[in-house]
Amino acid sequence: MDLIQQIKQTSIQQPSRPWTIYAIHHSHTDIGYTERQEKIEQYHVDFIRQALRVATSAHDGSKPEWKGFRWTCETFWAVERFLEEASPAEQQSFADAVLRGDIELSGTYLNMTELPDYDLLQRIHSKAQAYAASIGHTIDSAMTADINGYSWGYAQSLLDNGIQHLFSCIHTHHGMYALGRKQQPFWWETAAGDKLLVWNGEHYMFGNELGLCPDALGKYMIQDEFQHQLYENKDTHDQLARIRLNRYVCQLEAEQYPFSFVPVMLSGLATDNGAPNSAIADWISEWNTQYGDSIRIEMTTLSAFFARLKQENLTQLPVHRGDWPDWWSDGVSSTAMHTQIYRDAQRTLRKVKRLDPDRAAVTDQEIGAAEQALIMYAEHTWGYHSSIYEPWHPNVQLLEVRKQTNAAEASRLAYRALDKALLAQGTSTLYPNRPYRYRVVNLADTTARDMITLSLDGWEPAHFPHGLEVVCEETGKVLPHQAPHQQSIIVDIELQAKGECTLTLRARQDSSKPVGSMTSNTRLMGSDRVYDMEDMFPKVTAADAALPIHVTQHGVESPYIHIKWQEGTGIMSWYNKETEQEMLRSDRNYNAFTPIYEVTPPDNEVDPSQVWAVRSQMGRNRKGINVKRSVGQLVRIRTLENGPLYATVELLYKVEGMSYYALFLKVHACSNRVDVSIRLHKDSVWNPENVYVALPFTSGNAAEDTVYADKAGVLVRPWIDQLPGTCLDYSCIQEGIAWQDASNTLLLGTPDTPLIQWGSLEYGRRLVHSQQPANAKPETYAWLMTNYWETNFKATLGGFYEFRYLVSSRIGLETSNIKPMLDSLTSGILVSRVH
Could you tell me which residues come within 8 angstroms of residue 25 by beta carbon, excluding any fewer than 6 positions away? Predict the structure, then answer.
């Protein structure tokens, strides 16, 4: 049966009450998904010009058929680009249209991932409101499209910037809407107790599928029986629109939808980055003439829609507190190295702001330029739409390089600003006879302890032929130090919040000769230098007594911890000697820092269409039912250094998908801390892959501890502080994680890898928040890398990487101090050489 005959034989459902469809016309901003970034920018500037011409013509009466046309600028980024290019007359005309309500500004700048910290969120959400104030206007609403969640702090940032309403257009491709149903309003309560009114909406082009835009009839969410083309003739289009619109409102009635109106978003073309379309206004006028008594359609704006919503009794709306993890935050791990550079740049910029709060050395413009580069990297588009299917395509290559350039530019500008701030405060440049003085500053809001590096240039160690000493100028004390090589002097130091000191290097004062070393009669190490037995007698030699850390073939022990490993299985014990407790979960699936590699092979690995197709069937699993999982095996242990401050041990693993994976444990002698470094060489593989690292930690009391994750602006308890129906499997964090019980806290700083997997790695039915078993606790994995997405992830993960983790245990730490302590761990103490 052909389409026309099929339509004629389809009965039209009739709703039981009159309905109003509120159509919000916008263009989804997806920078680089459909074209080069600069071309997309050019498009969006022109879209505003087009919308302005239509709105002005409708307003002045020259085009009466366009009466009622409304345009919503989905992102202020597009407005910003337009205003930069617009003539003064265009700028005024645009402002007039905004003030009339014909064109609306959304309070969001771009559709973002969860990479931005709270500082950057505040910057993002202030931009549109600042422009609105300049023309005598106020923005009260914002929209997002094509992203499926936000950090809990995102809501607070919107409210802090005067935005009272958020319209969320979710996209269920490898994601899912919150609350268990779409088209539902709720109050999102922040950690501070403020409330944001949210509309949990449909796909951002759902209006196209209903038929509201001529020549742009979609079929994506509505998988009905009609096999139509995008561009059907008018009669066919109109009949399909009538069938679908009536079916839709009847479906809402059947689902006991409480209102007689419903909003839908639509584009002027059947594509992301689509132009405004005046024909929508024509079509709506014609529809209302014929069918408006039953279903009336009205073009509107975000603010006008929320004003209509507030006419209803909203006191009965549900109130939800907690995080809204973004299902699409996993894109950041498809470009792991550049995400690492981004995160370092973001932390560096925070240091600049703390070091120079009054902008005495660094201007607001310089800060803004670095922030803009950060914003453009963190925007949700992760590449061209055919990145997986044809990774050699010129646009794939162009967009990948330009996206990554944003991270590099943010890093360059942040470090340039840091250098300027430090130079203004006495940092020295390079010149002959430069003194060996170092300014050490703790920029954190809490006490910080770390092992800092005092660096020397290549020729300078020769100035200390008999060794050197590190002296604290404020106390005159000589500090213990350790030198992994001649140009790096390591010192353990502790500073109060905002505290600082000055360290000086001087020639060694003690002229006595070193004692040297001798073989021990009680140390059970053979001539092969393999230390694979436990001593039967305590350490008694001078050499042994001088070293606070004891390293054997099967473990390392400091005054604070004892870590044990086994060949094959890896690290199987992390014992806290201070609390006399094991810090690894007894119910763990994998040992600490064990690498886990997954690959899902297609039926035909040579056929590019199969490489794409196997990914498209994964849903929310991020892997296929036939996934092959490989667990790393520990094959070699080496002690690299051992001294008065720390010992470093290398654990080499064998794992599929990587030609090299080594774990470096830097165990501190003066505090309960281990700095972990993972170095790997990832093979280049086209098939969908995941690389995880197991983090099965606990505070020591696994039955009673609570897991905390540092999110932008707030501390979150995964699986507890979440909206119903949101993602349990993973989330994007900021500086780290903590496990806390009544007496102890284990902090895990994650400076390089923001994606944490909380759910099981097994393929199977995925659960969302409120579906998990009572008292279930998250597992914890660092999700280092992934390329599973079938459209715009980077196709290959191959290359060299190093990722760092910082493990520290604290007794008696208050929950309120977890977030600043994680910040202190990852930001470290700032060291600069001074005059």
Answer: 69, 70, 71, 72, 265, 266, 267, 268, 276, 277, 280, 299
